[in-house]
Design goal:
heterodimer, A: alpha/beta, six-stranded mixed β-sheet, 13 helices, about 35% helix, B: alpha+beta, five-stranded antiparallel β-sheet, 3 helices
Chain lengths: ~400, ~120
């Protein structure tokens, strides 16, 4: 059975139908993601998915190449390739690149049942048991098997089955090279797999056909020795999860930011010893914008650098820094770069923030002014024109 | 049955959307990209927190949009909760008007928000 699946297809209606059938009928309780953008599909880690159903023809990229790349990244994931224009050459290449099955996209309603039957065959428990049919119950500790493979100088993948879980440990020319299991890879996956009790596991050793990316740098002796200490001490960036968003900005965040080294900016020279507010200077209003009531600039540590008509410099800097920090959290969640522009429209005031790699400019506008929208655009253009 | 959020995914440029009630429950979501509902919920909660923090007795934040390169996160606060929409394009005022013209009837018909426009 699967817990997470991914559909890679440019055809949204087809992907929606398939997602619905998978979640409701084939694998209830599972989560199915859909990705329609081929470029983003390139960036997705396949390790998080038990099953990936991808189109052979994806706009902007070659589905067969994508399949090859993803299969190398996660041999435990099952891949199903779907095509509108099947031919024997593509079918052969799909299997060579790691597909479990190659299917023709259902063109008519009547073709869906056969299509789903094939997918079910790949993911149901019967099929899963077929996958480990050759595996033999472990008779010696897994660590001993790994040690034997390494000492022999082999290039193999040791597949470890424990119930519905599968782990792969890759040995390349006698070195421990890579390990993966659902949701993790590298040392963390290795240590996790080694915690599985010997009496619950079955093993299958295969000759290595694809060399995976190296995720384990330590020697096999070190890894086996350290495995005795358990997996907790070995966090792995690949399997890191996104940190939860803080509900509040820590009260000491700005203070901590001030403790960082100030930027090497001529404007700050000689002022670093006097604290952030002493750096702040009121500037002339270059912008004759009717609705603009104030504007200011902070650096990325939260120091207020300069501004026009700023009543409360402390408060202004904190507000901008708060927004910057919150949007940094959003950028992490979206797996995106930091924001470049933020617009907030309120009943009384509207805000425009423009950010680059060094600072954030913040403009405050009266929403009720008829020129507010034009003024905000003019402010943004001015920020870009002044390189922040 | 296709939810209103899945229906919204057919709007041009739509990458993801989610609606979080003010008790922080996820009322609905859909995505054209491999982003999971926990991430969307987290983002919507962060946006709601920004809106709450930036509001005062004489100021209520209504809408906002954030540019992340060529992509845009649009947020809108309702009496019922916070809606976020992640678009695969930059926006200007015309794009936002066009977006709300399509989204609002769907949300209203589904009873997710009370207001029609």
């Amino acid at each position: 059975m699967i817990s997470r699946a991914l559909i890679l297809s440019n055809q949204r209606p087809y992907a929606n139908s398939l997602k619905g059938l998978l979640e409701e009928k084939v694998a209830p309780g599972s989560r199915v993601d859909v990705e329609t953008d081929a470029l983003r599909a390139m960036q997705i880690s396949p390790r998080a998915y038990n099953l990936i159903i991808l189109d052979a023809e994806l706009s902007g990229t070659d589905g067969l190449q994508l399949l090859l790349m993803k299969k190398r990244q996660s041999t435990a994931t099952k891949f199903i390739m779907v095509s509108d224009f099947p031919n024997e050459l593509t079918r052969l290449q799909a299997f060579q690149n790691g597909a479990s099955v190659y299917l023709v996209r259902p063109a008519a309603e009547s073709a869906w049942s056969a299509f789903m039957r094939e997918i079910t065959e790949v993911i149901n428990p019967g099929a899963a048991s077929k996958g480990n049919a050759d595996a033999t119950p472990a008779t010696v500790p897994l660590a001993d098997t790994i040690q034997t493979e390494c000492l022999s100088g082999h290039s193999t993948v040791v597949q470890v089955y424990r119930g519905d879980e599968i782990g792969d440990i890759f040995v390349y020319q006698g070195d421990l090279y890579h390990a993966q299991c659902a949701g993790m890879s590298g040392p963390r996956a290795f240590f996790y797999i080694l915690t599985w009790p010997m009496e619950e596991i079955a093993l299958k050793t295969l000759k290595l056909t694809h060399i995976p990316p190296q995720t384990i740098d330590a020697s096999w002796q070190q890894m086996l020795e350290e495995s005795q200490r358990g997996p907790e001490a070995y966090p792995n960036e690949d399997s890191a999860t996104i940190l939860p968003v803080h509900d509040e900005v820590p009260e000491h965040a700005v203070e901590l930011a001030h403790m960082e080294a100030p930027p090497l900016d001529a404007a700050d020279e000689g002022a670093a010893d006097h604290g952030p507010i002493s750096q702040f200077g009121q500037v002339e209003n270059e912008l004759q914008l009717p609705s603009l009531t104030a504007h200011w600039k902070i650096n990325l540590m939260g120091d207020l650098l300069e501004g026009f008509n700023v009543d409360d410099p402390d408060q202004a800097g904190i507000v901008s820094f708060f927004l910057y920090r919150k949007l940094a959290d959003v950028a992490v969640a979206l797996e995106s770069d930091y924001f470049t522009r933020l617009s907030l429209q309120g009943t009384t005031y509207s805000h425009e923030l423009v950010a680059d790699n060094f600072s954030v400019k913040h403009g405050l506008f009266r929403s009720e002014e008829p020129s507010c929208e034009q003024d905000r655009e003019a402010f943004v253009a001015w920020c870009y024109g002044n390189s922040l | 049955m296709e939810t209103v959020f899945e229906h919204m995914m057919q709007i041009e440029g739509m990458l993801a959307t989610a609606f979080v009630n003010f008790d922080n429950t996820l009322a609905g979501w859909a995505a054209n990209t491999a982003i999971n509902p926990e991430q969307l919920q987290q983002i919507a909660q962060t946006c709601a927190h920004i809106f709450q923090s930036m509001s005062s007795d004489d100021q209520t934040l209504l809408t906002g949009n954030v540019a992340f390169g060529e992509r845009t996160l649009v947020m809108r606060q309702f009496a019922e909760g916070m809606l976020i929409i992640y678009l695969d394009s930059p926006v200007n005022n015309e794009v936002l008007v066009w977006l709300w013209d399509q989204v609002m009837p769907l949300l209203s018909e589904a009873g997710i928000v009370a207001e029609a426009a």
